[in-house]
Structures are given as C-alpha cells and as structure tokens.
C-alpha cells in the first residue's frame, strides 16, 4: 500500500528532521573528540560558524532557499501553515503560547529518564565523570562520547525547531548572526547543574 504524505504530517516531519540534523551535526564533534582528541568546545564553536555561513548562503540574495519576494531582506519562505505549532493561549501574530512548551517539558522528562534510568545514561555519565575508570569497567568510551554529543545535538535541533515553527516561521539572513539562544543554553545548563529540575528552573528564569 502506497503511503501518501499529507499536510498533517508536516509538523512531526519538520521536528524529526531538525532533531536528526542536530544529532548528525553534533556527532561530528563527538567523532573528532573520540578519534583525535579534539576539544569539543573548540570544534563545536568552529561548527557553529560553518552552520552560520551555510545558513546565510542558503537564504542570501540568489541563494537556493531565498524567498524571491524578500530581495531587500534575504530570507526563506514561510513555514507551511500545517507545520506551524498551534497556539493555545494568546494570538499567533503576537507570539502566543504554543504547544511547543509541552514538547519541551516532555523532552525534559525524556532527558531525565535516559540519563538516570537507562544503561545508556549510566555509561554516558560514567564516561563523563572518569573516562579511564569507565574504560577499565568495560565501557566503550569512544562510542559513548559520540553518543553523548549526538544526543545533545538532537535536543538542540528540537529547540531550534520549536523556535522556528512556533514563532518566526522563516529563516532570515539578518537573524542568523544575532541569535544567542544556543549560548544561553550553556548558562541554563550550568545554572541548573545539569539536572532535569535545575534545567527547568533555569529555563524559566532566563525565559
């Protein structure tokens, strides 16, 4: 039976695509760390700039994703209405509260469960605390470094999707260099001491 893509599939496909893209991008830093020992902070900062310039090229004047009607403010076309997160409180035009907040809370529960209630989470935490001891205990350190980076990238991709599908609805060249949300994420994680509850409280404070 042939499956036909409908408009109702646009939202989960958009979010899923962003999650996979984030995981793949962050995994590059994980591979570099696991194979040649490249510091993940340095490599991810370099990857940030690569992503920024690719994004600027995509929506620049004459770029493959440019909206032809936005010649003086190069940007992409608007996200299809079927891929926009529904607003349940307030007005969509005034950045009302959308269902992305429930997706974010669900992601926080997933983060807590994976990190504290699974073998994967145990191995990742063990490698983070002491990779030498983890290796001595039979844990594959390199594989877990890549997995940890990929998982973090997946969450970052989800955050980007919720931002894009819940508010801006398009990708503008002028928005790219001034975006600081990712760097705020570092502060939120540090303030929350990398715990699920702490991240929730830190996010509410910064929000």
Characterize the structure shown.
This protein is mostly helical. The protein has helices at residues 10-36, 40-59, 100-117, 119-129, 131-136, 141-168, 181-191, 196-206, and strands at 87-89, 97-98. A hairpin with a 7-residue loop joins strand 1 and strand 2 (97-98).
Please give the structural blueprint.
Elements: H1 10-36, H2 40-59, E1 87-89, E2 97-98, H3 100-117, H4 119-129, H5 131-136, H6 141-168, H7 181-191, H8 196-206
Antiparallel strand pairs: 1-2
Helix pairs in contact: 1-2, 1-6, 3-4, 3-6, 3-8, 4-6, 7-8
**SSE-based structural type:** mainly alpha
Radius of gyration: 19 Å
Low-confidence stretches: 1-5
Series of secondary-structure elements, N-terminal to C-terminal: HHEEHHHHHH
Beta content? under 5%
Averaged pLDDT: 87
Percent in helix: 55-70%
Q: What distance separates the N and C termini?
A: 46 Å
Principal-axis shape equals globular
The number of E-state strands comes to 2
DSSP summary: helix tally: 8
Within the largest sheet, what's the order of strands? 1-2
The largest sheet, given as strand count, sense and whether it forms a barrel, is:
2 strands, antiparallel
């Amino acid at each position: 039976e042939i499956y036909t893509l409908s408009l109702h599939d646009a939202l989960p496909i958009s979010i899923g695509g962003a999650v996979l893209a984030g995981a793949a991008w962050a995994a590059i830093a994980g591979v570099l760390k696991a194979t040649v020992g490249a510091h993940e902070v340095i490599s991810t900062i370099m990857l940030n700039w690569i992503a920024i310039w690719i994004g600027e090229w995509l929506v620049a004047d004459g770029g493959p994703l440019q909206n032809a009607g936005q010649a003086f403010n190069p940007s992409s076309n608007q996200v299809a209405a079927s891929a926009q997160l529904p607003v349940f409180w307030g007005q969509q035009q005034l950045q009302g509260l959308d269902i992305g907040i429930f997706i974010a809370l669900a992601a926080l529960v997933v983060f807590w469960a994976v990190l504290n209630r699974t073998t994967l989470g145990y191995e990742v935490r063990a490698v983070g605390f002491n990779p030498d001891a983890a290796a001595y205990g039979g844990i594959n350190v390199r594989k877990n470094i890549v997995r940890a980076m990929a998982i973090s990238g997946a969450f970052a991709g989800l955050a980007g999707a919720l931002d894009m599908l819940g508010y801006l609805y398009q990708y503008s060249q002028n928005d790219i260099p001034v975006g600081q949300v990712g760097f705020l994420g570092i502060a939120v994680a540090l303030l929350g001491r990398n715990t699920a509850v702490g991240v929730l409280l830190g996010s509410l404070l910064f929000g």
